[in-house]
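Extended Data, panel c. Modelled sequence:
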Amino acid sequence: MKQTEINHLEKVRAIFDILHGKKEADLLLKNLNILDVHGETVYHGSLLIYDKRIVALNPDESVIQVKEVFDGQGLYAIPGLIDAHLHFESQLAHPTALAEAMVPCGTTTIFAECLDLLSAAGEDGVRAAQNLFRDYDKLPYRLYAFAPGKKTAAWVTKEVLEMEPVIGLGEFEHFTYSKGDEDDFQKAAWVRAKGGFMNGHWGLTALPDMVLNYLPAIGVSNNHDVWNGDDIEKSIRYGFPTQIKFGVGSSEVIKTLLRSIVDRKFPTENFMLCTDNISIERLLKMGHMDWIISLCTQMGINPIKAIKMASYNTAKSFNMDHQIGSLTPGRFADIVLTDSLSQINPLYVFKDGELIAKDRKMLKNADIDYSAMCTKGVTGLDDLTPEQLDIVPLELSEDGQQAKVYLFDVYGRGHAKFYQEIWVPVVDGKVVAEHEGEKLSRLSVIRRYADGKRHIVNGLFKGVYVEHGAVATSWPAPIPYFVVVGQESEEMCYCAKEVDKYSGACIVTDNKTNKSVLPLEIYGVMANMTVSELTQSADAIDAALEEMGNRNEGEPVVNKLLSLFISLHRFRFME
């Protein structure tokens, strides 16, 4: 956090005087059932708070002086929850809007990647980081950030590493580190010299074992690239504190991981919980770390151990357990009061000893203006034609009645099923968007700025279905691309060109008329909106698509489409 001059002599004297009744403490939280994460027990007691930190357990109330007393009503007191790995851009909200949706869920600390935002900013990456982190200490959650380990120039990473609240290097790109990229060597060397942390992105599903030795050997601090029990076993065997992510892929992915932990009896001390990517709507409807703790207990993990996976284990992994992660003297007074340990219900959320959320509503938030980060679009699709979006078969059957094409599946994240080569009917020389009796939409992946011949991949799509019209969105990093879903090339071309007018956006069109627009004005990856404005815009996208035949479940369509870019990059469908 921001470094300020501290008179330590004054601090230690003040704490001594408080504990001897000669000076007022700030707050006494009493009548609590306190979770001891160290002994994994619960005891009835109280917490005394001064200068943002806990200074006493069960203080003698006949001795102490205190400015304010809060009756905990016998509720459980647990440490403020921690997200071990979150991409700032994934929920499309800027930091204060994120707070409004996240903090009422009991989350008081996040460890955040910002690589896509800074990559999108390009040469302006350093200034983008400065604006992103401006006044970060005023946020109602504790923020620790990582300089980009991939997608940015090395010089940008080096400068960001010197900023607060940056504590290390973000995840590497396994397509480059596995080949011995010189920029990766430089980035790793800089953070090693600083003694900072390195986030892993191990590529367990893509790399041979000998290459997998590289990251732990150079000192990478953790790994979140696990998708099944065998991945988990390998990750912890190589010594990684392993982050179990629940914000990406299908709902079965997180259940598969949790089942493996329970069935194979992996010690839970190895694990932290994280989102990786998550939408604002999911935060509002389902929750954050509170929800995943509850799911852990449903899957058979002891409630106290599940809470530790979202608090103490993460703090310890980042060598911060002397500051956060437990309710003990000297730690920051980040406290959640809940009426259950197995079904977390964050009734009161304290950060630094201040009540900031109650009954899932924010009581206090920062007021930070991010408009200086908004950018205007630079068009790149002026020469795009509808014919370029027609599906050209990968292969035709001998009788010309069947065509082999790509099928992309929004629910296939992290699995080979993200894309398949399938055979579909051909009628009058055109591919029919139908497979095994299921009607499908078409998908086009379009490079925004052509360098010679424009890179375009066309196929079928499972996850968003429209009977007519189209929906398109964009992603600027590491190379700007669009995805557009529809039935007819002409409408799809029109929709993509409408998105091209913005630095970033999601747009629904029908009969070449714009039906709904969600602009992503902050470097094309974030919306400069409040939570209410953002959710209304995302809902409007879904409502417009529903009129066109889509029946959406789970994440909003805009988040589903944006998640595609991760998989498209991973499976090399983007240049």
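The longest strand covers residues 24-36. This feature is highlighted in the accompanying rendering.
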